[in-house]
Amino acid sequence: MNQTTSQRYRVKPIRERRREWPFPLNLYQTAVGRKWVMAATGIGLLGFALIHMIGNLHVYEGPAKMHEYAEALRNLGSGILPRSLVLWLLRLGLMVMFALHLHSAITLKEMSRKSSQNASFTGGEKKYEGGREYIAASYASRTMRWTGPIIALFLFYHLADLTWGWWLGDNFVPGDPYHNLYSSLSRVPVAIFYVVANMALAWHIFHGAWSMFQSLGINNPKYNHLRKGFAASFAGLILLGNLSFPIMTQANLIDEDERLCQVSMGDTDEILACLTEQLEDH
Amino acid sequence: MSEIITVNLKIWRQEGPEKSGYFENYTQKITTEASFLEMIDLLNEDLNNQGLEPISIESDCREGICGTCGVMINGQAHGPRKATTTCQLHMREFSDGDEIVIEPFRAISFPVIRDLVVDRSPFDQIIESGGYISVNTGAASDANLIPVPKEAADQAFDAAACIGCGACVAACPNSAAQLFTSAKLAHMASLPQGQPERWKRTEMMVGTMEEFFGSCTNHGECHEACPKEINLDFIAFMNRDYMKAKVKNRALSGQR
């Protein structure tokens, strides 16, 4: 009897169940929990994308306001905490969220690949030899694994370009975002790259901002019909704001206008005074 | 109006789990009033008469409630008609000269037994790990002794419509079994009778599911493929309940 019971099933599990880690780390061991982490970090990253876009709109107010905004970010929590500490904590949080988002995405994809027939390493989707027809899966949802890496690569380029100044050379002035943004985006190939990358970002958000509700179990027939609209408008908003920067630079709406003040880190008041003066002249 | 059509079939043949499979072409004349499985039956009769090996295909009730039949027809689980199992699909959905590609449901945990027949016993293992409620045996209690809100009863019934055919896993690009598992969980968690084991059940069934299947990416293909139109909302319900199951102090679950 015992023998027949143990021999009844022929299908063996693909994954062995591991020993459970202590709470709350055990949540990350399961796919549902990992999906939850992906959605939660997704919300954080969405918040960053929105605030980053809105903050950068200061560029349209001219160099002085942009500089003021950059200084305000560094001075977050000033008077209580050391300068730049809050900013660095926020950056640390972003890095952790980004790493978790990436790690959960890669490992979950690998899990799905191992469960699926003929799923290639790059494609990741299950293949039917006779082909198959998608009915519900949108182009955005099926290209998450492509838009994701594009965004990651763009992010690296973006940081190296405007934060570390790898490619701007002598044109790069630390602490002068307006000047750096102008010098970088006035190059046509860079502007095109920014446009493409931000489209990928919007595409990614279009599926992600809806999908996160499902992953977190935020579901109620009362407001379910609003979720896809929310995702679409959020993606549209981010796309509109972010695309305006390369396009406006190319259209010469963001330019240096015979700017005289040379900005360097440190003597903040002096620069601000100079920039403000110039703004009034302009 | 019935008419006789000729369809070109491209059917997956595979002698056993370890053998490699291939597509075989057949031509079949059939009336549009015949069901899809009747068409296969006639084809098998012809193959038998010719002394060839008939095509293995699973079916049982042929009225769309047992979940035994199920194949990929032209790249769609259970064929082109929405909310219809393979057995309830009729040849009037096809026209003269159509090519019909028939392939078994695919997933690593659904190994092909023969031709179009796959082993779906991982579903049984998911159910076994927690898909039950506890009731006292003995004299039957009076009917309707436990009040159930109408909405909750409706939701439980919607979830219970799942016949466990495996179309969700077959249609999912990730081979995830979220729709099946969540339907079974929601079926029991919506009702008072399912409450005592609710959190344990959620944890166990999701755990077993993850041993066999992939991870959900919210494509929504499963809902489209489902012959019983099980809603994606149940997946969100399961995700929420699973989190609660992990966090909850179950010693207090008798109090709320």
General description of the model:
- The complex is a heterodimer of chains A (282) and B (256).
- With 282 residues, chain A is mainly alpha-helical.
- The longest helix of chain A has 31 residues, at 85-115.
- Chain A has a single domain (29-117, 139-281), classed as 3 helical TM bundles of succinate and fumarate reductases.
- Chain A has 10 helices and no strands.
- In chain A, 28% of the residues are buried.
- With 256 residues, chain B is α+β, with helices and mostly antiparallel strands.
- Chain B has 2 domains: 4-113, Roll (Ubiquitin-like (UB roll)); 120-134 and 144-252, Fumarate Reductase Iron-sulfur Protein, Chain B, domain 2, CATH 1.10.1060.10.
- In chain B, 33% of the residues lie in helices and 13% in strands.
- Chain B is built from 8 helices and 7 strands.
- Chain B has helices spanning 36-49, 121-128, 150-160, 167-171, 178-189, 198-212, 221-225, 233-247, and strands at 4-13, 22-31, 72-73, 76-77, 99-103, 112-114, 117-118.
- Chain B has a 5-stranded mixed β-sheet with strand order 2-1-5-3-4.
- In chain B, a hairpin with a 2-residue loop joins strand 3 (72-73) and strand 4.
- Chain B is elongated.
- The model of chain B has no long low-confidence stretch (mean pLDDT 94).
- At the A-B interface, helix 2, helix 4 and helix 8 of A face strand 5, helix 2, helix 6, helix 7 and helix 8 of B.
Pick out its properties.
heterodimer, A: 282 residues, mainly alpha, 3 helical TM bundles of succinate and fumarate reductases, 10 helices, B: 256 residues, alpha+beta, Ubiquitin-like (UB roll), Fumarate Reductase Iron-sulfur Protein, Chain B, domain 2, 2 domains, two-stranded antiparallel sheet, 8 helices
